[in-house]
Amino acid sequence: MLEDDFGREVSGVRVSLTDRCNFDCVYCHNEGLGDTRGPMDPQDDEMSTDDVVRFLEVAAEFDVDSVKFTGGEPMLRGDLEEIIRRTPDSMEVSMTTNGTYLPGRAPDLVDAGLERVNVSQDALDPDAFAEITKSGAYDKVMEGVEAALDAGLDPVKLNMVVFEHTAGYVEDMVEHVAENDGLQLQLIEYMPELTGKPEWNIDIGRVHDWLADIADEIEHREMHDRKRYWVSGTDPDGPTAPPAERGMVEIVDPVENPTFCANCHRVRVTHEGYLKGCLNRNDDLRSMGEMTKAEIRETFRETVANRVPYYGEYMVKNDRGEWEVNDEYLGTPTV
Ligand SMILES: Nc1nc2c(ncn2[C@@H]2O[C@H](COP(=O)(O)OP(=O)(O)OP(=O)(O)O)[C@@H](O)[C@H]2O)c(=O)[nH]1
Ligand SMILES: C[S@@+](CC[C@H](N)C(=O)[O-])C[C@H]1O[C@@H](n2cnc3c(N)ncnc32)[C@H](O)[C@@H]1O
Ligand code: SF4
Ligand code: SF4
């Protein structure tokens, strides 16, 4: 397994299959690349099926054992089932999707080898959902979640970005996963530096405190040092449900968690086939276009060797409480 200069082994890859999307979420970072495009026909700049598979075969040679497909909206790719089918068997395959295309396609994805799925759902309220995603697809997404559960994807994680528009819906969502078998909740700290809207930020520490109060059990996940709260309901005085009926709530808090980047084990690939060492940085892109496998191997090695943590020491808050690059830290390896 390859390791960077900060002792971080790369065990996973996260592949964006397209920057197209049928939604226009107000917060979208498009995997650190900015705006998504509309759901037009497949584009020439996207990696082909063979490009994706060739890269995954190389990654598997370096003992990378998991791949996450994302985007844009990965399900806009008609060849998704083929890509999954041709993914090396040694890799766990997951996907992050807005869920609209899961009805009808979920069984085929499972048949192809998809093991689990994260579905973005920011509120259990159709109006709020429409305002955030700029789409009227609330019912379709609910159907998509059902389709994923019916197809046997396990777990089905709901991704909720916690920011000004959604903070009032966190409790509902926690209740929802506690009551529904097979669902888990991932609360994602809003990353304002990728959207230019710092005013939407809310203090994720408050959510941690509230969950710590109502949780039956708290775990740490090694990846990103994420906290997991097991809850049986949002009423702290309520009856404790048997463990099988508890819901799991995981917090993904890159911005305020100083050890988040220390446990970052994933390299990213953009839809155009650039390797990228960090979600938030676009100054370390390395193209794999037209490369042989031997060249991809070398480029993968270089990408890993040049990875630098982004939050924590790399970024610091200035006197006005804004994030900026820590100049002192720039002496360490960058591209
Ligand atoms: N800054 C940063 N944000 C991340 C990272 N991983 C996940 N996130 C945030 O969390 C969002 C949802 O991530 P997902 O891909 O659905 O889930 P995941 O992080 O892979 O978690 P699992 O599915 O449990 O492995 C991402 O789009 C980011 O906004 C990371 O390595 N760095
Ligand atoms: C970029 S989307 C791509 C996959 C798919 N279209 C979806 O929405 O699930 C991946 C994840 O990034 C999260 N995300 C997007 N912008 C974000 C931001 N500014 N801060 C935190 N998370 C964000 C979304 O909520 C989503 O769960
Ligand atoms: S569905 Fe995903 S890719 Fe599309 S706009 Fe929303 S967060 Fe971005
Ligand atoms: S922000 Fe940190 S955890 Fe996220 S990809 Fe970059 S280095 Fe990894």
Name its key features.
8 helices, two-stranded antiparallel sheet, alpha/beta, binds guanosine-5'-triphosphate, cyclic pyranopterin monophosphate synthase activity, metal ion binding, TIM Barrel, twelve-stranded mixed beta sheet, binds S-adenosylmethionine, disordered C terminus, single chain, about 325 residues, metal-binding
Q: How would you classify the helix and strand content by structural class?
A: alpha/beta
Q: Give the SSE order as H and E letters.
A: EHEHEHEHHEHEHEEEEEEHEE
Strand content: 15-25%
Give the CATH class.
Alpha Beta
Largest sheet composition: 12 strands, mixed
Q: What is the number of beta strands?
A: 14
Number of domains: 1
CATH structural fold name: TIM Barrel
The whole-number mean of residue pLDDT values reads 88
